[in-house]
Write a structure and sequence with these properties.
Ribosomal Protein L25, Chain P; 6 helices; elongated; alpha/beta; single chain
Length: 236
């Protein structure tokens, strides 16, 4: 597969001019040359095989010669919400959710959460989505939503019917954990995970009243990112 590049512009067959940081990346970091084949994507669901025509440090002219639409998305919406873990673990979480086909990620503010990203951090998280999409072949970008307070998030209008909340002591089968059985596939789902200190009893009560199903993911306590990834795998 030709190397994939994200560009923030409309794409269609014909010439395309890439400037700024993206051109620098193609020309200087990747050292591409005229005649090299690449694959462009912009998050619109398609990918665009292209050839480099002219290249300088500041501008790259490419010729897009096809539009392809490989099926790489989940056939249903999967929205995941969790408090952002600290440091590199946040990057890891965002990358893995992107690879797993998650539709959106919402950072949560809960009573015991400690990391509350501002807009600049959200931009950075969205960059991780792009990097992971380059690597895994996704042509639709996982949306990173603004920070949301759990009491508002869990009762928000428009949440899908299937609302899953990872909670130690939640639903499990006799003698084993819920995680050992998969969920019915292809249902639009919102899945939430709590902070390192766990949800408070009040937050759990709110979720239950709003129709969330509490799931136990096994006999070990998982970190936030592990629980979110495990939930996404179970749903996907
Ligand atoms: N002491 C906290 C508690 O009892 O909830 C542990 C929090 S855990 C580090 C962070 C979050 O991951 C939890 O709030 C929950 O959403 C999820 N989680 C971790 N392990 C889990 C498990 N075995 N079953 C269900 N959810 C789990």
């Amino acid at each position: 597969m030709a190397e994939r590049f994200y560009v923030n512009c409309e794409l269609r067959p014909g010439p395309v001019l890439v400037q700024g940081a993206e051109a620098h990346h193609l020309a200087v970091v990747c050292r591409l040359r005229p005649g090299d084949a690449v694959c462009l994507f912009n998050g619109d669901g398609h990918e665009y095989p292209a050839r480099i025509e002219k290249i300088s440090r500041r501008e790259v002219t490419l010729e897009v010669f096809a539009v392809e639409s490989p099926a790489r998305e989940l056939p249903f919406r999967l929205d995941v919400a969790a408090p952002l873990p600290r440091g590199d673990r946040a990057q890891f979480l965002v990358e893995k959710l992107t690879e797993l086909g998650v539709t959106s990620f919402t950072p949560l503010r809960t009573t015991r959460s400690v990391v509350h990203p501002r807009e600049t951090r959200r931009d950075k998280l969205q960059r991780y989505v792009i990097e992971a999409s380059k690597q895994c072949g996704r042509n639709v970008l996982m949306e990173v939503r603004p920070l949301s307070d759990w009491p508002a998030f869990c009762v928000a209008a428009g949440l899908p019917q299937r609302r899953l909340l990872a909670h130690p002591g939640g639903e499990k089968r006799a003698g084993d954990s819920f995680a050992q059985r998969s969920l019915a596939p292809f249902l639009p789902t919102v899945a939430a995970v709590g902070p390192e200190g766990g949800f408070t009893d009040e937050e759990i009560a709110l979720a239950k009243a709003a129709g969330w199903r509490l799931l136990d993911l096994g006999p070990r306590i998982l970190r936030v990112e592990t629980a979110a990834i495990a939930l996404a795998v179970l749903c996907g």
